[in-house]
């Protein structure tokens, strides 16, 4: 009952006309960047971060949450209508969603995606309301060793799971950690990796790094390699923009299973919603194979419903993990964690005690955002698709100018503009060489926490490093890390085995075809 009372107080704050306006702005921006190819919620939050410091914290984070959720709603529109998913989280939805559109069911596909995202996000918001305070109370048991183990868990899981190459993931992580240690050491007061430049004594701003890597780097990549960016013809939805009773009965179990699959991944730092969406799609495909008349490959509604629900349920739970534990499970969540720190707030149990108005208004805004996004996406999906008609040069030139204005408005330093350009080139190279961005951002955000926790734990134990592997919470975190890495390795080995088998079958078929032609 106490939780419900706090949630009602949160609704009282979130339903003010100012906060409703920020929810709407966040949902509009999130959906827009989700529809546009190459953009995403992480880029939108990074671009907005410099210009929101003048806002009241509750308004800023309500808008960020709307952007975070809206990005997933918009991603599926692009994948369904053009077979070109805006982000990796929408790839699984594209498999069956685009086939539905090709079969003249584009309107029903968009409705399935919007309802699935709504259900996944709404259920996750309910779980977060009751689970986040419990997690926050649990995190009061965390000491330096536990926080260090949590950071190591995030580092290892993110860098090894989000990419096919663990080497690339670890390289991106170490780049982020390397940037994080630049500046004056907080304990000894000695400058580290500053090259005797006073401009680097305070370190490199996370705002500069996120804007450079996520926005400017993407702009440079598109400008230099635009010939590789292709898109199909937009399929115009026709017919009823709602689902029949039969379609609802077909999609409902998939929505439920997708939501259930996505929820646990919201508190596991495994790269965000990409993995649960593929898992949800795989589960539905295996269930479909048992039917007398399999539908996958021809536009199965379950193959679209499950990934959409899984993606948004993961995002909703990720917000709970961020608020209660200070644990970012994706690049967007990591940027939001940085935003909390810029406002002088630390997610965790102290946040629930020191800023309860912000926390509960933000949680209440999740429900409002879900309803707004359903209204914005269910009947108006084709209007959002018209954003694809914006000429690329104008779009990305505008983003570049916005990057520069945002950084200069924050710091007023020409040096930061030069740093923006330099790190933007690094982001372009990472993008071109297929290095993941999320480990870099998470490494930079959690690097200081890991360093401080390591020092505090070893100093309190008199230099005994064994304290880092003692205690039930620490051992549990490391055991979970081993399980996550084990599943990741198993999945990659199986994928490579299947790829070799497919290649062998293809080669055998080619040899047999050549033999028949010679005969």
Automatic annotation (TrEMBL):
<feature type="transmembrane region" description="Helical">
    <location>
        <begin position="147"/>
        <end position="163"/>
    </location>
</feature>
<keyword id="KW-1133">Transmembrane helix</keyword>
<protein>
    <submittedName>
        <fullName>Tripartite tricarboxylate transporter permease</fullName>
    </submittedName>
</protein>
<feature type="transmembrane region" description="Helical">
    <location>
        <begin position="109"/>
        <end position="135"/>
    </location>
</feature>
<feature type="transmembrane region" description="Helical">
    <location>
        <begin position="46"/>
        <end position="69"/>
    </location>
</feature>
<feature type="transmembrane region" description="Helical">
    <location>
        <begin position="169"/>
        <end position="188"/>
    </location>
</feature>
<feature type="transmembrane region" description="Helical">
    <location>
        <begin position="360"/>
        <end position="382"/>
    </location>
</feature>
<dbReference type="Pfam" id="PF01970">
    <property type="entry name" value="TctA"/>
</dbReference>
<feature type="transmembrane region" description="Helical">
    <location>
        <begin position="417"/>
        <end position="447"/>
    </location>
</feature>
<keyword id="KW-0812">Transmembrane</keyword>
<feature type="transmembrane region" description="Helical">
    <location>
        <begin position="20"/>
        <end position="39"/>
    </location>
</feature>
<feature type="transmembrane region" description="Helical">
    <location>
        <begin position="467"/>
        <end position="489"/>
    </location>
</feature>
<dbReference type="InterPro" id="IPR002823">
    <property type="entry name" value="DUF112_TM"/>
</dbReference>
<feature type="transmembrane region" description="Helical">
    <location>
        <begin position="394"/>
        <end position="410"/>
    </location>
</feature>
<keyword id="KW-0472">Membrane</keyword>
<feature type="domain" description="DUF112">
    <location>
        <begin position="20"/>
        <end position="442"/>
    </location>
</feature>
<feature type="transmembrane region" description="Helical">
    <location>
        <begin position="317"/>
        <end position="340"/>
    </location>
</feature>
<feature type="transmembrane region" description="Helical">
    <location>
        <begin position="200"/>
        <end position="223"/>
    </location>
</feature>
């Amino acid at each position: 009952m106490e939780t419900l009372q706090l949630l009602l107080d949160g609704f009282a704050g979130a339903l003010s006309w100012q906060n409703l306006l920020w929810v709407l702005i966040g949902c509009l921006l999130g959906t827009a960047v989700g529809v546009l190819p190459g953009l995403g919620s992480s880029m939108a939050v990074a671009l907005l971060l410099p210009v929101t410091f003048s806002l009241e914290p509750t308004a800023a984070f309500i808008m960020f949450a709307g952007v975070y959720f809206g990005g997933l709603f918009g991603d599926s529109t692009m994948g369904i209508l053009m077979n070109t998913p805006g982000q990796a989280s929408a790839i699984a939805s594209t498999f069956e969603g685009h086939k539905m559109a090709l079969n003249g069911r584009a309107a029903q596909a968009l409705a399935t995606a919007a309802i699935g995202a709504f259900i996944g996000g709404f259920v996750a918001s309910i779980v977060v309301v009751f689970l986040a305070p419990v997690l926050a109370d649990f995190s009061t048991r965390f000491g330096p060793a536990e926080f260090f183990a949590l950071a190591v868990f995030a580092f290892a899981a993110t860098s090894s799971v989000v990419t096919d190459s663990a080497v690339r993931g670890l390289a991106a992580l170490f780049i982020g950690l390397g940037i994080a240690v630049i500046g004056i050491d907080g304990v000894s007061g000695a400058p580290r990796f500053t090259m005797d430049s006073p401009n680097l004594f305070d370190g490199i701003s996370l705002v500069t790094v996120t804007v450079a890597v996520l926005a400017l780097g993407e702009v440079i990549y598109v400008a230099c390699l635009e010939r590789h960016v292709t898109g199909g013809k937009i399929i115009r939805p026709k017919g009823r923009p709602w689902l029949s009773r039969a379609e609802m009965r077909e999609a409902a179990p998939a929505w439920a299973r997708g939501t259930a699959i996505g929820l646990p991944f919201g508190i596991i730092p495994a790269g965000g919603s990409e993995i649960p969406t593929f898992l949800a799609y795989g589960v539905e495909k295996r269930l479909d194979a048992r039917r007398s008349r399999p539908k996958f490959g021809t536009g199965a509604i379950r193959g679209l419903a499950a990934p959409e629900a899984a993606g948004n349920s993961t995002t909703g739970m990720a917000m709970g993990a961020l608020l209660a534990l200070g644990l970012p499970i994706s690049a967007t969540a990591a940027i939001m964690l940085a935003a909390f720190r810029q406002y002088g707030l630390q997610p965790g149990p102290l946040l629930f005690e020191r800023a309860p108005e912000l926390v509960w208004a933000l949680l209440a805004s999740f429900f409002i955002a879900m309803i707004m996004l359903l209204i914005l996406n269910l009947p108006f999906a084709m209007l959002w698709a018209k954003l694809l008609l914006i000429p690329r040069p104008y779009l990305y030139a505008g983003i570049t100018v916005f990057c520069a204005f945002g950084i200069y408005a924050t710091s007023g330093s020409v040096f930061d503009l030069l740093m923006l350009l330099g790190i933007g080139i690094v982001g372009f190279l990472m993008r071109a060489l297929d290095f993941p961005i999320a480990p870099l951002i998470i490494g930079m955000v959690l690097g200081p926490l890991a360093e401080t926790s390591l020092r505090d734990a070893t100093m309190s134990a008199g230099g005994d490093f064994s304290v880092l592997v003692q205690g039930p919470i620490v051992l549990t975190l490391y055991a979970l890390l081993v399980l996550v890495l084990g599943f990741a390795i198993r999945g990659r080995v199986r994928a490579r085995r299947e790829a070799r088998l497919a290649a062998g079958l293809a080669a055998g078929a080619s040899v047999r075809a050549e033999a028949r032609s010679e005969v």
